[in-house]
Amino acid sequence: MLENFLAPDHVARLLEATNRSVARRRAQVKADPSKARFTTQAGSSTRILYILDDDPLFLEMMDWPAILPYVKGLFNPKFHHLASDAIVDFGADLMDRTGGWHRDGNDGGYDKIGFPVPFLQLKVGYYLTDMTQPGNANLMIVPGSHKSRHSPPVRDADGKECYPGAIQVCAPAGSAILFHNALWHTAAPFASPKHHRTMLYFAYEHTWMMACEETWNYSKDFYNRKLSPAQRKYFHGHNFEPMERRQGWG
CA triplet 187, 140, 89: central angle to 5 degrees? Predict the structure, then answer.
């Protein structure tokens, strides 16, 4: 956990961008229900997927200079972008939410590969609202669970409070949380209907992987016109026209 990783004015701009994007996405779903595939709603709460093309600030966060040393040092010096999403949750909508415990990754969190599940994704979450106290749907984790040699029983994964030693990650707005794909995690329960949270998530994978469909859901205009030359290397060469023939970052 990196406390106060983003400056307060940066957090404020990201919050504004998130709120704009959520309002726009919800309007799109109202006009065309098929859009709900990438925008999920529960009352006023919303999760939007594939956000890089929603606002330049989100695209900027994909390779924010301050986070790159951590991604390269902890995960892979040559990596690809995997996924991005924004979450705006309100306790008034979600007081009865239970379960949600999971690993990240395809096919049940890559568990068909074997145990312990290898380090195939690095997830970076940014708190955009204050979460210094528990009960704000904080990220809740089971420390050391990425080393597990088995999956938990379904009854435990569906439980509201489960796993001895589970903790809520408490930190101020602007903090970044980095974690292994096999770490068991979920959103903690809300302690009050008056509480809320806003978070951004960005995930990274190895260059030889194609584990998420996000890559396929951006336009050719996005790839060819909106990415900087430096950002192009974080995506597979086949996304561009003409196709870039390269290995890794070649």
Answer: 25
DSSP state for residue 189 in the 8-state scheme: P
Residues 105, 106, 108: CA angle, nearest 5 degrees: 85
239: its two tokens: 């996304």
**Residue 80 · residue 204 · CB < 8 Å:** yes
What strands lie across the sheet with 39-42, from one edge to the other?
Answer: 39-42, 45-49, 79-90, 196-206, 121-127, 176-180
What are the residues whose beta carbons fall under 8 Å from the beta carbon of 170, sequence distance 6 or more?
131, 132, 133, 134, 138
User: Which domains, ranges and CATH numbers included, belong to the chain?
Assistant: 8-218 (2.60.120.620)
How large a percentage of the chain has pLDDT more than 70?
A: 95
pLDDT digits (tens, 9 = 90+) for 139-156: 999 999 999 988 877 666
Q: Kindly state the tokens that stand for 135.
A: 């009960």
Angle made by CA atoms 58, 63, 65, in degrees to the nearest 5: 115
Give the distance from CA 84 to its chain's centroid.
5
**Predicted structure pTM score:** 0.94
3-state class of 52 per DSSP? coil
Cβ-proximal residues to 213 (8 Å cutoff; 6+ apart), any chain? none
